[in-house]
Amino acid sequence: MPPRREPDHPAPTQATVVAQFRDYHAEKFSGQGDPRIVDEWIQGLEFIFEVMDCPDRYRVICAQLQLTGDARLWWNAYWSMRPGEKAGCTWEMLKELIREKYYPTYYRAEMERQFLLLQQGTRTVNEYEREFTRLAAFVSDLVRTEAQRAQRFIDGLYPAVRHNIVGHGTQTYARAVSISQEVDANIRREAVRDHPQSSALAQSSSVPPMPALPSVQPSKNNKRKGKGAPTDKRTRQRLQQIPQCPTCGRLHRGECRFGQDVCYYCHEPGHFANRCPKKAQQPQQPPQQQQPRQQAQRPPQQQQQRGRQQARVYAVDQAEAEQQPCTMSGMVVLNNVPVFALFDTEATHSFISRRCLDAIRVHAVTAVDPLEVSLASGRKIVTSAKASDLSLSIGGRVLSTDAFVLEMRDFDLILGMDWLSFYHADIRCHDREITLYLPGDESITFFGSRNHSLPH
Fold first, then answer.
1. Taking the CA of residue 118 as centre, how many other CA atoms within 13 Å lie in the half-sphere pointing to its CB?
2. Contact yes or no for 422/370 (Cβ under 8 A)
3. Fewest CB atoms less than 10 Å from the CB: which of 9, 245, 267, 399?
């Protein structure tokens, strides 16, 4: 028995396609209003065409039926000056013509600038991908191929997400998006599971914390409570020699000023230690007394100098950091935003990327003395932009820091020796631990990552 032959379906005619299209009640376009309406209109039509399985040769006919007012006048005038060419107009050509006409030059330039600067930041990958797709429509020359589009998407991902993707080899755009979504979701689940602060942040913000925070162990060193003791033997031996204060219950030496409205730095009333006017005149370590918990601990300001200050930093990306003998990376919370930080004993100062400043919504100011920074390559960069009084949350404590602005590819924040030495940081590279010692003999142990990528 011969195989059954399916009946041939006649090709749709223009009349049937147009009639079917009208049933979807597509939006009209007049060319008036916000330029963003152009993309919304085009995307709405493309959705209908996909549902209809509309042949390309009929898409232009259907689209021009939706032009009204000034847009219809322009369309008719454009083709009246090009007799005989309209029949060759494709859907892609129509979209390009519409965009050239109704996206002002300044608007197109701004969209291109936003695309080139686009980073995931604190967005989810889904949010980042939507913005990437929207802006890519303005820079088709930069993402002509699948490989170009995928690479540009990967370049803008958050470092902790990007580093989990690059090991997968060459990516298509769809594959890059799929893997990054999975990595992003895993990181956020770990943040909620492993770090209470991160979970609280997720509940208080429309943007989930990004990314997961390494574990941090605060140590209040209060024998009366019998918990929170430091993990390393040297710290325990040090604390056993410090008496417990009968006034505040903490471990410290000397007079207790807990509850007194005085500066813990100069012991005078009227201000707190972080605003002490004597710090600039006579920099020194503040007395070992416990400040109120809500007061951010901060390193003293460096003495004002004339001319450029000399500085060095040898690791501004992952590859350079891996060459340093004792660096450690991990997530910290800066101004309530999780950021990727490098703890670097080879850096003389602390630095912050401009991308990070935008994420935490802080504006840099011009420093009194610019900083001349020597890089590992031998190149020198002069920076005078500085962010002050940043709130760094580690282990439930708020520590203050200042940082000069420096462009970095893989890190948001570099905490150098100016910050590490103030907190008498005890860095144990092999164990991936940093212990910070605060006034009042309180300590915090931070567990980071030696390989400079977020733990899986």
1. 25
2. no
3. 9
Give the type of residue at 367.
Answer: A
Q: Check pLDDT > 60 for residue 201.
A: no
CB 85 within 8 A of CB 79: yes
Rounded to the nearest 10 degrees, what angle do helices 56-65 and 36-52 cross at?
130
pTM above 0.70, yes or no: no
CB under 8 A, 24+ apart: contacts of 268-276: 274/298, 274/389, 274/400
In 3D space, the residue among 233, 235, 201, 234 whose CA is nearest the CA of residue 220 turns out to be 235
Tokens standing for 374?
């020597």
Residues 212 and 201: their CA atoms lie apart, in Å, by: 12
Closest CA relative to residue 443, chosen from 265, 242, 213: 242
Buried/exposed 399-425: b ≥16 CB within 10 Å, e otherwise: bbbbbbbbebebbbbbbbbbbbebbeb
- C-alpha torsion angle, residues 135, 141, 145, 147 (rounded to 10): -70
DSSP 388-403: EEEEEEETTEEEEEEE
Neighbours of 135 (CB within 10 A): 19
* C-alpha–C-alpha distance, residues 372 and 374, integer Å: 7
Highest average pLDDT, of 80-89, 250-259, 371-380, 423-432, comes from: 80-89
Three-state DSSP class for residue 239:
helix
Q: How far from chain centre, in Å, is Cα 321?
A: 19
How wide is the angle at C-alpha 265 spanned by C-alphas 426 and 255, nearest 5°?
A: 90
Length of the chain: 456
Q: In this structure, is the dihedral angle defined by the CA atoms of residues 395, 397, 401 and 406, taken in order, positive or negative?
A: positive
pLDDT of residue 295: 46
Share of the chain above pLDDT 70, in %: 65
What is the C-alpha separation between 426 and 238, in angstroms, rounded?
13
**Structure letter (DSSP) for residue 195:** -
In the predicted structure, residue 334 carries a pLDDT above the cut 70: yes
- Give, rounded to a whole angstrom, the gap between the first and last alpha carbons of the chain: 60
**What is the C-alpha separation between 159 and 156, in angstroms, rounded?**
8
Spatial distance between the Cα atoms of 444 and 297, rounded to a whole number of angstroms: 13
DSSP secondary structure string for all residues of 415-437: E-HHHHHHTT-EEETTTTEEEEE
DSSP state, 410?
S
